Amino acid sequence: MTSSLAPVFYLPHGGGPLPLLADPHHLALTQFLTQLGSALATPQAILVISAHWETEQPALTATETPPLLFDYSGFPAQSYQYRYPAPGAPALAHEIAAVLQQHGFAAQLDHSRGLDHGVFVPLMLLRPQADIPILQLSLLKSLEPMQHIALGEAIALLRQQNVLIIGSGMSFHNMRAFFQPDRVSQQQVAAFNQYLIDSLSSALSYSQQVSRLTAWLNAPNARLIHPREEHLLPLMVCLGAAKGSTAQLLFQADVLNREVLAFGWFD
Fold it and tell me: Do 137 and 71 contact (CB within 8 A), yes or no?
């Protein structure tokens, strides 16, 4: 995969560290992320917007060597010993913060927070070499869709600098339903997923895509699929960052017995 601009991805990160633990319900996802990484051209840096970090105003990790944040519990001891020694990108974090401020966001730098599992789990599969500078951008506590699309639009210029932008979430995220299958039917999941696929159709203009995606609560079974929308919001950031590029459906398979989606934008 090569292009004039770095791609944008919305990727599922799975349940905690399970994609790294050979969990049978994550094998398709693990294989997809591994193969996607091997097919990518090498970016100058990777910016990840994870569902697992929310702040009042946008925040960016700005450490030279970001640690890992094991923000899960109840998993095997080995899953708390992972290392991903990729360098940080403090200079790029300062640059992005300045751009966000120009777009009306009171962006902040965080010099202590580690990379959460929404970052390091997919990256350990996408880029196991850990040789590309990594930084993380937070979601906004407002959870307001249009603000997140605007956040994406503000960072769209990073693609010209060969910075890979990844939104890390899950198109399905009802935790109780992962473990109690009768709570949500596969048909209900499929109907919601089709709304997302249709919303990113190349037959729609960018403004139409924005209108549909920001009105995601109109999708079938929306609050059943996302009782809280933090795992969907990285998709909003990605749409803004891609700024009208054509979305491609890259992955549509079960994770923990629930169909989840991944999208990519290329130029």
Answer: no
Could you give the strand order of the β-sheet that contains 59-61, starting from the edge strand earlier in sequence? 108-110, 59-61, 134-140, 45-55, 163-169, 8-12, 258-265, 247-255
Bigger pLDDT: 176 or 264? 264
Any domain includes 103: yes
The pLDDT tens digits of the residues spanning 213-238 come to 999 999 999 999 999 999 999 999 99
Is residue 2 situated within a structural domain?
A: no
For residue 73, give both structure tokens: 């519990």
Q: Considering its fold, how many domains does the chain have in total?
A: 1
Show the domain range for 235.
8-265
CATH number of the domain enclosing 80: 3.40.830.10
pTM: 0.97
The per-residue pLDDT of the chain, averaged, comes to 96
CB 23 within 8 A of CB 260: no
Q: Crossing angle for the helix pair 206-214 and 186-199, nearest 10 degrees?
A: 150
In a domain? residue 66: yes
Total residue count of the chain as it appears in this document:
267
80 falls within a domain: yes
